[in-house]
Write a structure and sequence with these properties.
The complex is a heterodimer of chains A (189) and B (180).
Chain A: H1 10-37, H2 47-59, H3 62-74, H4 80-108, H5 112-125, H6 132-147, H7 152-181
Helix pairs in contact in A: 1-2, 1-3, 1-4, 1-5, 3-4, 3-7, 4-7, 5-6
Chain B: H1 2-10, H2 16-34, H3 36-39, H4 43-47, H5 50-55, E1 68-69, E2 72-73, H6 78-96, H7 98-103, H8 105-131, H9 139-161, H10 168-175
Antiparallel strand pairs in B: 1-2
Classes of the chains: A mainly alpha (189), B mainly alpha (180).
Chain lengths: 189, 180
């Protein structure tokens, strides 16, 4: 009689979450420094926004990697539902890890938050298409947002957004990965 | 047709919770993208909106590259708007047309992955060219490129979720007469 193998998803999704959480953080932080070190252009399309996009494109492959690690560990046989769960767990780990690293980074570079805020405000000030009242409203919003970088409400909000978006997107990518890389168990055929 | 679709979706082999979840996620993305112009009157309102905060994890949200309704941009750029709108629409429509769709499983299997990669390649190339200012496509072109890729992605998701409906013969065997 074969021993019952406990096919836990936590190793695969934890490892994929750790790697991709770090990658997302790395891309975001590089984008932030691009914004800080660039001349203001008056466009909202700064390094931070480029980083968000690239970070997400990288981020949605977390679920794929989670499924790949699971397959390496336990073989190709898995249902697409399991792929979805692996993707979801990977996305949640990713959001937590990237959020924790983002909170730790200003401890390494003490002027990071302030420099980023100044660069973002300088960009808004140069936006020509906006009336000055609206411009001021956006500057105030940016100022408040950056001043509350360590506020519990901001941390919880950012974590929630990351968990929902990365979790759901990686659930879809994990499902597709399970379909493309795995094989349906015999009872599904 | 609708009756057969419901029967297929209710069959024991199909992953109904996953189907509902996928439907919910794709609908949520469309709602997040399209709702700001109907909830905010100005760009600062959009800038502080929760829809923008959610979509900022996956889109650059540049105002000039976004479709605007009543002078308020959508929560995603025109390319992402195309991708996610087509993703929801094609997933919903191909699921609704499941009895017919299932007859074309072999064709879908053969071509949809190629179309998916082709669409991704077009969008990556155009996105990179725009980013490095090799050329600038209009918002309508970006929307169309996005729609093309999103369409294949939605069909791929349907094909992923309804794997056991492999052929017309299988449909007839499991669910009765196939619609003419």
């Amino acid at each position: 009689m074969e021993p019952i193998q406990n096919k836990s998803i936590w190793n695969a999704s934890g490892m994929a979450g750790l790697i991709f959480g770090f990658l997302v953080f790395l891309i975001t932080i590089i984008g932030s420094y691009i914004t800080i070190n660039s001349e203001p252009t008056g466009s909202l399309f700064g390094g931070t926004m480029i980083a968000s996009t690239v970070g997400c494109l990288v981020g949605i492959f977390g679920g794929v990697m989670g499924v790949k690690l699971y397959i390496n560990q336990f073989g190709k046989e898995l249902k697409i539902g399991k792929g979805a769960v692996i993707g979801l767990a990977t996305g949640i780990f990713m959001a937590i890890i990237s959020q924790v690293l983002s909170l730790l980074w200003p401890l390494i570079d003490g002027s990071f938050v302030n420099n980023l805020m100044e660069a973002m405000i300088a960009n808004i000030e140069l936006m020509e298409q906006l009336p000055s009242g609206q411009k001021q409203e956006m500057i105030d919003a940016t100022y408040t947002q950056m001043q509350n970088y360590y506020a519990a409400g901001t941390i919880i909000k950012n974590l929630l957004i990351g968990v929902v978006m990365f979790g759901l997107l990686n659930m879809l990518s994990g499902m597709l990965a399970a379909k493309l890389m795995g094989e349906a168990p015999a009872e599904e055929l | 047709m609708l009756f057969m679709t419901i029967r297929i979706l209710n069959s024991p082999g199909d992953p109904q919770p996953l189907w509902l979840l996928t439907f919910f996620v794709t609908f949520l993305l469309v709602f997040l993208i399209w709702s700001p112009p109907f909830m905010y009157d100005t760009i600062p309102g959009w800038y502080q909106s929760w829809q923008k905060a959610f979509m900022s994890l996956m889109c650059h949200q540049q105002v000039a590259r976004s479709i605007q309704i009543r002078d308020v941009p959508l929560a995603a750029c025109s390319r992402c708007t195309g991708i996610f709108t087509a993703l929801f629409a094609s997933f919903a429509v191909s699921t609704l047309l499941l009895p017919i769709f299932s007859s074309f499983q072999i064709l879908v299997k053969r071509y949809i992955i190629k179309i998916f990669w082709f669409g991704l390649l077009i969008n990556l190339l155009d996105g990179m060219a725009n980013l490095f200012q090799l050329w600038q496509t209009s918002n309508v072109a970006r929307l169309l490129f996005g729609l093309f890729w999103g369409l294949s992605l939605g069909i791929l998701l349907t094909a992923t979720l309804h794997t056991h409906c492999k052929s017309k013969k299988n449909i007839e065997k499991n669910y009765g007469t196939h619609p003419k």
